[in-house]
Design goal:
Elements: H1 6-16, H2 28-35, H3 40-46, H4 51-57, H5 60-70, H6 84-107, H7 110-116, E1 124-126, E2 132-134, H8 136-148, E3 159-166, E4 169-176, E5 186-195, E6 198-208
Helix pairs in contact: 5-6, 6-7
């Protein structure tokens, strides 16, 4: 039997399926491989070009690969509560909410912070000294005092940011540097709850990592 090269197959398909784009005529494995180089926005846009590309661009393995590329490198440590595309989208909105927290802390904006937190009596905030503040009003008062302090200034270059989602609640862990005289970077844990398709913060915990770096405390 005479072998047919991949390029020859593409040419033959082009002759047989006039009206289809070149990428739609590739073998599925090659199409999936090509699409694996696209980012979130590009994949979403491509999925709306045709029914065939919509099916291909929504491939679960494709979104799983993109998730591990953008958010979590380790395989086997995440089990999505839904398909990988939905889990990727949820993680992206969660990370956006967490980075809004980072930006608010840098800007010292209490109005923006008040909109980020869930208005509930049970939300909690822990300071780096270990003191707990419970309830929306108490948390806002603590943050207002913190923002008003002339000593307070974060160089909020967050690193080692990781997120986990459990349907309607999630948590984000990260490390950040701090310009107040402390013994090391800060380890931060933020917990969020999903309401009306929006993530609201419900818990914040901050602790100082001893000198030696975050790596020594993993």
């Amino acid at each position: 039997m005479v072998g047919v090269s991949t390029m020859s197959k593409v040419v033959l398909l082009s002759d047989d399926k006039a009206g289809f784009s070149m990428i739609e005529q590739l073998v599925p494995e090659m199409t999936t491989h090509i699409l694996s180089f696209l980012d979130y926005s590009s994949l979403c846009s491509l999925s709306m070009t045709s029914s065939l590309m919509g099916k291909t661009a929504n491939d679960d393995n494709l979104w799983k690969s993109l998730y591990h590329q953008d958010f979590q490198e380790e395989e086997g440590t995440v089990t999505p509560f839904n398909r990988w595309k939905a889990y990727y989208a949820a993680t992206k909105t969660l990370m956006n909410a967490n980075f809004e927290f980072v930006n608010i802390m840098t800007a010292k904006s209490l109005p923006r912070m008040s909109r980020l937190w869930l208005t509930a009596h049970w939300v909690t905030c822990f300071s780096d000294s270990g003191k707990r503040y419970t309830g929306y009003e108490a948390v806002m008062e603590r943050l207002e005092d913190l923002f008003d302090s002339w000593e307070f200034w974060f160089d909020f270059d967050a690193f080692d940011v990781e997120a986990r989602i459990r349907t309607e609640w999630a948590w984000v862990t990260m490390f950040t540097s701090h310009h107040v005289a402390v013994d090391g970077p800060l380890r931060i844990t933020n917990v969020f709850e999903l309401h009306d398709n929006r993530w609201f913060m419900v818990h914040h915990y901050c602790s100082i990592v001893p000198t030696g770096g975050a790596e020594d405390n993993e």
